[in-house]
User: Fold this.
Amino acid sequence: MKRWIGRVAQTGALVIVSALWSTACGGTESEVPQRTDRERDSLIAQSALPHASGVGAALRAQDKGDAINARIDSIAKSVP
Assistant:
């Protein structure tokens, strides 16, 4: 019984030490390049995931809306 308790204590200590070591020596999150929502959604739309085509359709609809808004803004700016 004492042998079993000693092994559990050693394993627990090893887990704690390795957790502390990984937190202390871990890199910052800024090292990993972060994607924008648009890039992430574009990658999803190009994938073979279920309903990924719906994500692509939503992106195209957003682009169309942005183009319409840009035209309206340019017209509004040209009117004195």
In short: The mean pLDDT is 81. Residues 52-78 form the longest helix (27 residues).
